[in-house]
Please model this.
Amino acid sequence: MPTIIVDDTRCKGCEMCVIACPRKIIVLDKSAMNGKGYHPARLADPSGCTGCGSCALMCPDVAITVIA
Amino acid sequence: MTASEKVLMKGNEALAEAAILAGCRHFFGYPITPQTEVAAYMSKRLPKVGGCYLQAESEVASVNMVLGAGAAGVRVMTSTSSPGVSLMAEGISYIAGCDVPCLIINVQRAGPGLGGIQPAQGDYWQATRGCGHGDFRLIVLAPSTVQEMVDLVSVAFDLGDRYRVPVMILSDGLLGQMMEPVVLPEPQGGLPPKPWAACGHGGARERNVVNSLYIEPPELEEIIARRFDRYAGIEASEQRCESYLTEDADVVLAAYGASARVCRSAVDAARGKGIRAGMVRPITLWPFPVSAFGQCKAAKAFLTVEMSTGQMVEDVRLAVNCGRPVEFFGRTGGIVPSPAEVLARIEDVAGRYA
Model:
């Protein structure tokens, strides 16, 4: 099943991937905080991911790896 | 990478590279979000170009290291974010009192206190009103794009050296964290000589003393008066701003930094709706570009937009000498206003005054 891996240390919580995701299943994880103080992005519904890669393409900090 | 080639860079990193290209080889700082990438980039790059990167134990220590290096005549900088500037305030006052040039970067976040880590513009007063004890000024430059973050770094160092004043670049978390294409400048050579610097001379001349302590009141008053003569020169010749569609504008917005980006979109949208809107975007916050506001002959009202509860709005009111209404719109807490919100305010102001 396709999924994404977010490198929490690079994520700055800008939400570009949240906007880019055509399935609208990426959210900021308010229960987690990285070293810089940002809430990192998470796949809220792993079963909905198509592995399209839009989030990874959009991420300005290259923090997202897509497992297709 | 050749000159004039466009590269995609994060604001904080572009700013750091620009400082190296401007001849800065000394950085003293302490990490704080959303500024940390400046320090991280410097720690990676400075040792490779024969420079000195030092992460101090605190902001208080780092700003005093800046004073020491600046007194020795080198191009030196520190960077921090809002709470860090408060910690540096004492040292900045000493630097101003010693007439030592340096570059201080403030990548603003929301305050007061620890506040938040998202972008804000609540440090306008702190930056433009001296930001420490005693009578002094900082030259304050406000970029609104990553390219301008780059371009203003060499301007900042040059102004500092010319007038022997500390210079602040007042950025914010949005500009620091965003990525945009930039063209980096050629490395700056031929830095100006600093005959006043305390940098060793092998007994060849009288010793130079860099100091801010003057026990005799008349002597100190004279020093302050001469310093304010320099400030007057800065106010007369160093005002910078961008005037966007102001010539025929009924409603003139005033905004700097990240909020100016939003305002530009809102002005375009207002023009699309037939409202003659424009914008004055101060690039120097001190000296404030007073003359640009005087040139807005057609303006029936001004609208200042800030990511604060209203700080620069006071300078806009002073600039228009209360001759025309100056309204305010702002968001705080780390929230960036949307173009639609600003457009609604423009329509409101235009409806009442235009």
